[in-house]
Specification:
Blueprint lengths: L2 H8 L5 E2 L5 H11 L3 E6 L2 E7 H11 L19 E2 L4 H11 L3 E6 L2 E7 H24 L2
Parallel strand pairs: 1-2, 4-5
Antiparallel strand pairs: 2-3, 5-6
Helix pairs in contact: 4-5
The structure holds adenosine monophosphate.
Adenosine monophosphate (AMP) binds next to strand 3, helix 3 and strand 5.
Amino acid sequence: MLIASILRRKGSTVVSVAPEATVTHLLTELSRHNIGAAVVAREDTLIGIVSERDVVRGLGRHGPGLLSVPIADIMTTDVYTCTTEDTIEEVSEAMTLRRFRHVPVLSEGKLAGIVSIGDVVKSRLRALEEDKAQLESYIHGT
Ligand code: AMP
């Protein structure tokens, strides 16, 4: 199954923040949208990703002053991305091996959405349920 099938269900909304914005702004956005990570973009170009884990690490480094630090200081710039044509299995494997839970999706070089580990798990469970239903109907001849 392709990443495109996840985006068809969840849509292409990507919450993005500017690198100059503060960590306070990031936390407001994460909480307003009830998400764990945001992409960092400048004029529609992806330049990083920042997640709640970066905030936790940042607290260790900057202490309480973290809230006024620019997002650029805590984001990850070496972003792993996928395309709508990649398979869910490939992306799921990369998330497990590289230990992150969010992957921005590109289509023709442009941001087309973001998938989280929750989206991947949900989709794999749905596929397993469908396989099970098909096998049961095959066994019972229905
Ligand atoms: P997460 O598990 O997504 O909360 O992120 C854990 C760490 O990996 C944080 O330092 C993130 O900035 C970083 N990270 C998250 N997603 C990606 C990604 N797609 N590519 C590279 N780093 C990422």
